[in-house]
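Incident review: delayed structure delivery

Summary: a single-chain prediction request sat in the queue longer than the usual turnaround. Root cause was a stuck worker, restarted by the on-call engineer. No data loss occurred. The affected request and its eventual output are reproduced below so the record is complete for anyone auditing the incident later.

Affected input:
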Amino acid sequence: MYATQIYVASQTVRNLIVVDPPYTIICAVFAVCGLLPLLGGFALLSFAKIGFTRPFQMLLWLLPVLVGCPFLIVALVTSATTRITVSADTDTLNVRKTILSLPVRTKEYPLADVRMVKVGVGNVCRFLYVSLADRPAEDLTGCTDRTGYSDVADSINDFLNANRR
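Output delivered after worker restart:
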């Protein structure tokens, strides 16, 4: 298991958990690149005792925010984690996406509707999608350059075949 690949985190007879981890190193680099101008700019402006009375002074206080926030937004986006849980006990395939452990999106599919999980290929990326019985296919993960998609799709499909009723 490497931090650069999607992997099966846990597997029992009745449950399977797959994790698409965050880009930790990239997230940390962008967070530092965002916090340095933000904190450094505010410290420098405070040390120089620049007030808020004139429009130009307010613009100076806004400058660290304008420089640092785009980096912090990219840090948040690269910290996203997707967790796919396939449970024979609840008969569901659950996809939960979180950013900094806060749930962003949750989707649940009944196992009776799930035909199989496949690997999709984009121009320079791969993703997992679920083939459904009576609806169009839907993406489970975002399009990334990670590895391990085929192994995960095989594991989920084997689990689904073993737990069909």
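Verification: The radius of gyration is 22 Å.
Action items: add queue-age alerting; document worker restart procedure.
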